[in-house]
Design brief:
- The complex is a heterodimer.
- In chain A, the strands form 3 sheets. Chain A has a 6-stranded mixed beta sheet, sandwiched between helices. In chain A, strands 1-15-12-14-13 form a 5-stranded antiparallel beta sheet.
- Chain A has 13 helices and 15 strands.
- The two termini of chain A are about 25 Å apart.
- Chain A is elongated.
- By secondary structure, chain A is α/β, with parallel strands linked by helices.
- About 5% of the residues of chain A have low confidence.
- In chain A, a hairpin with a 2-residue loop joins strand 5 and strand 6.
- Chain B is mainly alpha-helical.
- The chains are: A alpha/beta, B mainly alpha.
- At the A-B interface, helix 2 and helix 4 of A face helix 1 and helix 5 of B.
């Protein structure tokens, strides 16, 4: 467990009508391959909802059903059961997918075409012949290599071209399968800024990633899946929130006396550990202040997403 | 739909090997014409005898015989195999399927493939005709008396019309095989096998008649193989008659084979749309 500083003000977002309808909704979605005794369930009864203006992380170990779920969300795979809704419409509705941008398989492109021509082909297929391909290529830092054939691209370049392709139709929902694959540190930072920018513009972003630290930094909410089942869907902040506060205050005895009646307190290296939730932090501070205690540090203990992920999906690895 | 077709053409233009499978017809005919003109100029072919008007016209539209021949249809099937099954090999269905309805993606491929092939044959045909017209200038045989522009246009249009359905059927069949096999190689192989089966069909039918005299003629009328052969024969002026036994033959009027092959083409197309519409792309 680690310690993180508490924010002074908790943001209170306003909820618009658009936000009440999920940009992406999976309702009891299942996928089973084969029939009879050889049937294999890849995804089982997954229900989740991605809202406009948020970045939603989709996590799971290899073989957890992430890719199958993403493909069902894009109409590439037919669900065996349940329903996929994009922007309030069924995924089978041709109009729904036109407002969605996607990156799957690290950018599947025509290897014999240049990056620019690949985007031209996609823009034409989408019916957006006038798409601003040049500015998109600049946005993903590929303008200089736009006329090279994709077969000569590195994995990171293909990934960036994939992001450009995903944004070609100015989508309301962006679905990204492992967008940071093959990117260097600077590329990952750029990608993070780009994704946050999309969410700030009100777009919904649904992404899968193995980079849990990135997910932690980037996502508003996450879903964790293993063996085809949804284990948890929660706000990252809630998920990481620990059940204790770390306090550095003087005098220590006065602090213990002020708090012990209400919260269990113990001395730890460098201060006190108070068994209180993050939401109790202002109250704890008031109690200490009333008792004449000086507070030097007040922070919540937090779980790391990696620890939570590994704990929850442990069975998936066995 | 125009946008989808433009996208398809953009893809094909960028794939040199595929593009060559379209350009090969005008290229071969251009070379053929050049060789013919050089031969005429150097007189190496000896004194050429002037053909009759009918023969001259027939020779000027030789290219339209390619889609009716096995070799020509192998090439057409190979081209269609790359166009349809290539998306599986390149893993690019994932790129374009979210962008447009699946049936429209298929329709764009059918239309562009057929238009390109017809344009290539038309270009080769014009080159062949140009060569026939230029030959007298290079010392070759003169254009025979009685050759009129309207006769030439009529004969070329008729030859083109005879080629349309075999091209259409071959492309649609290859498209179906591509969707069923998801492989360029398998599509090309099965297309070649189907075309060879058409060639062998008279022998197979003759052999099968001895075992199933009632079933064989019925199957021959039902399956597409005989009808392809029959339409090719009708393009030459008379239908194909397949002997089955001492008193039995398979024969059909042109219109029957035309309807049968159109039916098979439509069925293959419908099955392709149905199968592709339900296909999981992992």
């Amino acid at each position: 467990m680690r310690i993180s500083h508490l924010p002074v003000v908790f943001e209170q977002g306003t909820v618009s009508m658009e936000e009440t309808v999920g940009a992406l909704e999976l309702r009891s979605v299942s996928k089973t391959y084969g029939r009879g005794p050889k049937a294999r369930t890849a995804v089982s009864d997954v229900t989740l909802s991605v809202r406009h203006g948020e970045v939603y992380g989709f996590l799971g170990p290899n073989g957890a059903g992430k890719s199958t779920t993403i493909r069902m969300a894009l109409g590439l795979i037919r669900p065996s059961g349940g329903e996929v809704r994009l922007l309030g419409r069924a995924v089978s509705d041709p109009g729904a997918l036109r407002r969605v941008g996607s990156l799957v398989d690290g950018g599947a492109f025509y290897p014999f075409l240049s990056g620019r021509d690949n985007l031209r082909v996609l823009a034409r297929t989408q019916g957006h012949a006038g798409a601003a391909i040049g500015s998109l290529l600049e946005r993903v830092d590929l303008a200089g290599d736009a006329d090279r054939k994709v077969k000569d691209y590195s994995l990171g370049m293909k990934q960036r071209l994939g992001v450009a392709a995903a944004l070609l139709n100015d989508p309301e929902l962006v679905i990204l399968d492992e967008p940071a694959n093959g990117l260097d540190v600077a590329g990952i930072q750029d990608m993070r800024a780009l994704i946050r920018g999309l969410a700030a513009d009100g777009k919904a972003v649904f992404l899968s990633s193995h980079l849990l630290h990135e997910v932690e930094l980037l996502c508003d909410r996450v879903a964790i899946v293993a063996k085809g089942q949804l284990l948890q869907e929660a706000a990252v902040r809630d998920l990481l929130e620990g059940d204790a506060l770390h306090i550095e205050a003087e005098p220590v005895e006065a602090a213990i006396a002020a708090l012990a009646a209400r919260w269990p307190v113990e001395r730890v290296a460098g201060g006190l550990r108070v068994e209180a939730r993050r939401a109790d932090a202002p109250d704890v501070a008031r109690h200490l202040h009333a008792a004449g205690v000086d507070i030097y540090r007040l922070a919540s203990y937090e779980h790391s997403l990696e620890t939570i992920f590994l704990t929850m999906t442990k069975d998936g690895h066995d | 739909m125009i946008d989808a077709m433009t996208a398809e053409a953009l893809k094909l233009r960028g794939h040199r090997a595929t593009w060559l499978m379209v350009l090969i017809y005008p290229i071969v005919f251009l070379l053929f014409v050049l060789v013919q003109l050089v031969t005429d100029m150097t007189g190496t072919a000896g004194a050429a005898q002037a053909p009759t008007a009918a023969l001259w016209i027939e020779q000027s539209h030789l290219v339209w015989g390619a889609p009716l021949s096995s070799g020509g249809r192998f090439l057409i099937a190979g081209f269609a195999a790359v166009v349809f099954a290539g998306e599986y090999g390149w893993n690019t269905w994932k790129l374009v399927i979210p962008a447009r309805a699946r049936w429209q993606l298929l329709a764009a491929k059918w239309i562009v493939t057929i238009i390109l092939l017809l344009a290539a044959f038309a270009a080769a045909d014009l080159l062949g005709l140009l060569g026939s017209v230029l030959r007298p200038l290079a010392g070759g045989p003169a254009i025979p008396a009685g050759v009129s522009l309207s006769d030439v246009a009529q004969a070329h249009a008729a030859a083109a019309a005879h080629a349309v359905l075999p091209i259409l059927y071959t492309v649609v069949l290859a498209g179906l095989l591509a969707v069923l096999t998801s492989s360029i190689l398998a599509t090309a192989g099965l297309s070649v096998a189907t075309i060879l089966l058409e060639q062998l069909f008279p022998s197979i039918a003759f052999f099968a008649y001895g075992y199933a005299p009632a079933l064989t003629p019925a199957l021959a009328q039902l399956l597409p193989f005989y009808h392809v052969t029959n339409l090719v024969a009708w393009a030459g002026g008379s239908g194909a008659t397949i002997p089955l036994g001492t008193n039995a033959t398979i024969a059909a009027p042109q219109i029957v084979s035309l309807a049968a092959l159109l039916g098979w083409t439509a069925a293959c197309g419908a099955l392709t749309i149905y199968r592709f519409g339900r296909q999981d792309l992992n």
